[in-house]
Amino acid sequence: MELKTPLYDVHVKYGGKIVPFGGYLLPVQYGTGIVAEHMAVRTKAGLFDVSHMGEVTFEGKDALKNINMLVTNDCSGMYDGQVRYSPMCNENGGVVDDLLVYKKNDESYLVVINAANHDKDVAWMKARVFGDAVFTDISSSVAQLALQGPASKDIILKLTDEASLPVKYYSFTEHVGVGGIDCLVSRTGYTGEFGYELYTKPENAADLWEKLIEAGAEFGLIPCGLGARDTLRLEAAMPLYGHEMNDEITPLETGLGYFVKMTKDDFIGKAAMENKGEPTIKRIGVELCERGIAREECKVFSSDKEVGHITSGTMCPYLKKAVGMALVDKDISEGDELFVEVRGKKLRAEAVALPFYKRTK
Amino acid sequence: MSVERDLFYAETHEWVKYLDGGRALIGISDHAQEQMGDVAFINLCDEGEIISAGDEVGDIESIKAVSEIYSPVSGTVSKVNDELLEDPAALNSDPYGAWLLELEGVTENNSLMDADEYEKFIEEE
Q: A149's torsion region: left (phi>0), alpha (psi -120 to 50) or beta?
C-alpha cells in the first residue's frame, strides 16, 4: 500500500495528477504540465513536496566515525551547519544509496536518504552501528518542501528575516521561523537552480505550503510535481538512484569519483574499489541529432559496436534538446558520434559534456 | 477534459472527422493528450500510404512516454499536418483542431463510438 505525505490533500486541491512513487502517492504534475513547471523553476520559482525522502539521525561521540565508515565521502572537517553529498556503498563497491549528511554538531548528524531505498538503507545502517552512537529513523516525523528557482530568496524573505537563512550553498540553519513555522532550512536542491529545502513537522506542512504559495504568487511561484523534478535534475545532470546508480555500479564508474575519498582510513566498499582498479565505463551526456527521445535502457553504439546504454533520457524543456545520460565504454570521448537505438531505429547522437545545463550566477 | 460532439472515437483514443468526398481527418482526443502530457515530437507515416483501420500510423513522444497512434478508419493518406510536426505543443492546446492525417477513399467504421459513448468509455476506463 502506498503512503500519503502530509500534503496529499493539498496536492489533490491544487489539481495534482497523483501517481505511486517510492512507496508514496505523489503528484507527477499539476494542471500546468511538466514543461510549464520546469520553466517556472528555471525562470521564477517552483514548490515541491519531497516529504517522501527519508531522514535518519546519528547521535553520540562516535556519530562521525559511524558515518565515515558508511559513506564514501569524507565527513570529517565539516563545520556545524554544513551539508555534504555522498554515495553509500556495499562491500563490493556498488551503491546502496546516495544521501546528504547534515552536521548539526560533533555529536549530532542528520542524514537524508531516498524514499525508494528507505527500508533497505535503514536496515543497512542500523546493522552497522558501533561504539557510542545512537541511530534513529525519524522519517515519519519529518516533512520536506523544496522551494527552487531564482525567485526563491525573494519569496522566503516575505516569511522570514535574512539573518536566519543559510547563505552558502550546501549549508543550513535550524529553528528558522518561516511564516511562524519552525523549520530547518538548507541551501540545497535537486534542480540545478538556486533554492532552499525546508524540513518541518508533518502537522505544519500544509500550512507552510499555503504560506509559501501565497508569498510566491507575485513572483510566479507554482506547485511542481515529480515529472518536472526529474527533467530538472536530468538537465542539471544530477544522478538518480536506480538509473545512474545501483548496487552493482561503483561511484567511480558512474562519474562520482569526486565524492569517493580513497585517502580516508576505511569505509565500506573501499577495498573492493581498490581491487577493481581503474573503471572501464563512465557516465557521459548524449545529445540526439535526430528527432526522438532516448529513454532509459536504450542501447548506445559507436559505429556498429554496442558501447553502453542510456540511464535516463528526456526532452529538456529549457534547453529544448533531447538528451540523456549514458554509461558507456571509457574510451568514448566528448564530440564522438554515437547512435542510440530508439524503438528499433538507430538515431544519430553526439557524446557531450555534463551537465547539460549550468546556472549562470 | 472535453469530448467534441461531431466526431467518432476509437478505444485507443483517436478521433475521426468525416469530410465530403470520402475524405476524413484523424487526431487524438483531449483525454489522450491529457494522459500523455506535454508533447515533444510527433512521428507520422508518409502521404500515399494505404491504411487499414487499426494500423499504426505514427507515434507521439511526450516528455513522459511514447504513445502509438492507430488509424480509426481505412483509407489512403492524402495529407500529413506538417504544421503540427513543427509545433507539436498544439496537440496539447487544441487536440480537436490539431489533426494529424487526412485520409481519402475512406471506408466508414461502424464500430467506433460517438461522443456520448466515448464519454462513458473514458469514465469507466
A: left
- Please indicate whether, in this complex, the C-beta atoms of B41 and A227 are within 8 angstroms of each other: no
> Which CATH number does the domain housing residue B65 bear?
2.40.50.100
pLDDT tens per residue, range A191-223 = 999 999 999 999 999 999 999 999 999 999 999
Other CB atoms within 10 Å distance of the CB of residue A157: 12
Q: How far apart are CA A139 and CA A123, in angstroms?
A: 14
SS3 B122: helix
Cell numbers describing residue B122: 473514458
Is A34 within 8 Å of B37 when comparing Cβ atoms?
Answer: yes
- Compute the C-alpha angle A63/A67/A69, nearest 5°: 120
Paired with A57 in beta bridges are A110, A136
Task: State pLDDT tens for residues A115-133.
Answer: 999 999 999 999 999 999 9
Give the minimum alpha-carbon distance from B104 to chain A in angstroms, rounded to a whole number.
28
Q: Which of A44, A8, A3 is nearest to A195 (CA)?
A: A44
Spell out the residues 6+ positions from residue B66 whose beta carbon is closer than 8 angstroms to its own.
A293, A295, A343, B59, B60
User: Number of A:B CB contacts under 8 A?
Assistant: 37
- The domain spanning residue A340 has which CATH number? 2.40.30.110
State which H helix or E strand residue B60 sits in: strand B56-62
In a domain, A360, yes or no: no
The partner residue sitting opposite B63, judged by closest CB among A35, A291, A343, is A35
The pTM score is: 0.92
Q: Are the CB atoms for A144 and A184 separated by under 8 Å?
A: no
Chain length of chain A? 361
Phi, psi of A145 (to 5 degrees): -120, 145
The number of distinct structural domains making up chain B is 1
Q: How far is the CA of A252 from the CAs of A87, A185, A261, A361, in angstroms?
A: 10, 31, 11, 29
d(CA A249, CA A93): 7
